[in-house]
Write a structure and sequence with these properties.
The chain is of the alpha+beta class and 283 residues long. It has one domain (5-37, 63-282). The protein has 6 helices and 14 strands. The strands form 3 sheets. Strands 4-5-6-13-12-9-8 form a 7-stranded antiparallel beta sheet, with helices on both faces. Strands 1-2-3-14 form a 4-stranded mixed beta sheet. Strands 7-10-11 form a 3-stranded antiparallel beta sheet. It is globular and about 40 Å long.
């Protein structure tokens, strides 16, 4: 995959600019044209009172991911996503060395949010595309490689089981490891999407309700799979995308990293910690 594409394609330049402390200058509808400058954001009026040490030390509770720093790695700690597009609030812990990606022109315009690991030690200059993402499904593609083929019937998004069956219909991206799963107190289905030998396209598996084109990011080494957890939550399906493989991603290779089948083996332990920390709170 030549750029973060599908799962990260629409706003790659914007989000990667923010990751490395840059600011995106322009975003067009069909083509992103970004020019970068040194950050100069003001965090508040100079006349605002400075919180006392006592007030700062008594602050508790998780931070909204929507209010987290836009540039650089996230401070380690507790975060949550509570978006109108989601069927519930999602709480989780983020370790040091991970950053926030969103699939829209702004965080507020996105219904796809990811926590990705910092990949500078792999030699990749463009990010890792490796981590965990949260989203919901609008329409599922009949053929991930052919937009003209259209979308499946909307009924496939009504339950985790129906959505898993829809995922299993793709010829070029065969589904494996389909089984019942539970996360955060909610049940559903887990599915692995493999990259078939005939798959040569930049795939879009589904579109989110806000129009984000969501697709897989594969390892440059075996196994070439992506994991999805599809959870039934309050009459909707919450989708959690996971790159639970140890090798470098194809995206990292495009950014200058050398293929390494063990590049993310330590990150996998942190990824599992993130998943284990997830709490889903219906409204």
């Amino acid at each position: 995959m030549t750029r973060l594409r599908r799962i990260f394609r629409t706003t790659t330049l914007v989000a990667l600019g923010l990751r490395y402390g840059l600011a995106a200058a322009a975003v067009l509808v069909a083509v992103i044209l970004a020019s970068c400058a040194s950050p100069g954001a003001s965090v508040g009026d100079s006349s605002s009172p400075t919180p006392s040490p006592t007030a700062a030390s008594t602050a508790t509770g998780p931070t909204s991911l929507m209010d987290s720093p836009e540039a650089g790695d996230l401070p380690a700690g507790a975060y949550y996503l509570d978006l109108p597009a989601y069927p519930a609030r999602i709480d989780f812990e983020v370790p040091a060395g991970w950053w926030h990606f969103w699939g829209g022109a702004t965080r507020q315009d996105s219904d796809a949010h990811a926590i990705l690991v910092n990949s500078e030690d792999t030699g990749a200059a463009n990010g890792s595309a490796w981590g965990v993402a949260f989203t919901v499904v609008g329409e599922v593609r009949v053929d991930p490689c052919d937009r003209v083929a259209g979308n499946m019937d909307s009924s496939v998004t009504e339950s985790a089981e129906a959505l898993a069956d829809a995922f299993s219909s793709w010829e070029d991206f065969p589904a494996t490891g389909m089984e019942d799963t539970t996360l955060g107190g909610f049940s559903g289905m887990s599915v692995e999407i493999a990259r078939g030998e005939t798959a040569t396209c930049e795939a879009t598996l589904f579109d989110t309700p806000l129009g984000y084109e969501f697709g897989p990011i594969f390892s440059s080494t075996e196994p070439m799979v992506n994991q999805f957890m599809l959870l039934d939550v309050e009459g909707s399906v919450l989708v959690i995308w996971i790159t639970d493989f140890p090798g470098t991603t194809l995206f990292e290779e495009d950014g200058g990293a050398s293929p390494d089948p063990q590049a993310h083996i330590e990150d996998q332990a942190q990824l599992h910690d993130i998943l284990d920390s997830i709490v889903i709170q219906p409204r």
